[in-house]
Amino acid sequence: MIELLCIGNPLVDVFVNIDDKLAAKYGIVDPVQHIDREQAELFLRDNAIDVAGTVKSSGGGAANVAKIAAMLGMNAAFSGCVGQDELAKTFEDEMNGAGVSAKLVRSNEKTGLCFACNINGETRFAASPGAALEFNESHISEEMISSAEVVVVDGYILDRRPLVKHILLLASRRGIPVALDAASVFQVNRKAEEILTYSRNFPLFIFMNADEALAFYNTIRKSNDDDSRLSEKEKETKIINYICPTLKIITDGELFPIIVLKLGGRGALVIAGGNIYREETFTITPRDTIGAGDAFCAAFISAWIRHKSISECAALGNKVAREILQVPGTHIKSGKLKSFAKMLQK
């Protein structure tokens, strides 16, 4: 029996330290962007990159969730599409090493890449999804879905509506909840109405960070508010005073949706069954924030499967996310999470 089946874009994350000149050479100018494959290959081989300081790790939101869940002692599986190259081996080896059952589809396209570029303390992401985009509904069987207790879906596959609907329909037939991470403000701005519709028709967990929650609220209200200049405290105040009451109405009297708002160093808010739960944490100076939200999701869902309370789920999410903040991406040794795995066994 699979406890978590995670479905999404398998990527190899490459963490590099570069300067503005090299970033400009490859057009890496936006906080998040796509980069074409030829450009990505040239960038990977550029002699100006500090090879000694480069870290490669399996990545992609759903893959990260599967990896962390497996390290927490859960029976986790991941499904997505990779190429038949060395990067695919890097991805598969790390997933298998973490204890994940990798159900990978092979493509003639090259395995997806995502560069996390540290440029004078600023992080910019440049992704080349490659083979990941070949994954579709024909690769997901009813048997695969029915074997899971929870299905986790990467928000970046929301653009593939037939695939997402196929997963939701198969899961709902068996009463299996689906956990959806909103993925990014860009995705929320385009997909908020769809996410809301899904939440009304299927058993859904929805995970959003503060910026995504604000974008979700503004989109469904058709508001033109610009919250980008708000401080973290101001964002939190708006979320508590305006967004939580709206989401509370959506969840009132229902088992689902369960909506989880990740507030980073300010903890988490969970809206479920018409109630609002607050679980605080403490702030640390992160080495890297990539993958922390995925780690929170993995821990929260794992605790929920093991019949922990909503507060316990959020508390474990905070604790595991803090560990991930101290490493690049989810490139963490499983021993670091052993104490949390023991908590799930109680």
Please explain how this structure is put together.
- With 346 residues, this protein is an alpha/beta fold.
- The protein is built from twelve helices and 14 strands.
- Strands 6-5-1-9-10-11-12-13-14 form a nine-stranded mixed β-sheet, with helices on both faces. A five-stranded mixed β-sheet has the order 3-8-7-2-4.
- The radius of gyration is 19 Å and the shape is globular.
- The model has no long low-confidence stretch (mean pLDDT 90).
DSSP helix fraction: 40-55%
Question: Taking all residues together, what is the mean pLDDT?
Answer: 90
Q: Can you tell me the overall shape?
A: globular
Which radius of gyration do the C-alpha atoms yield?
A: 19 Å
Biggest sheet overview: 9 strands, mixed
H and E string = EEHEHEHEHEEEHEHEHEHHEEEHHH
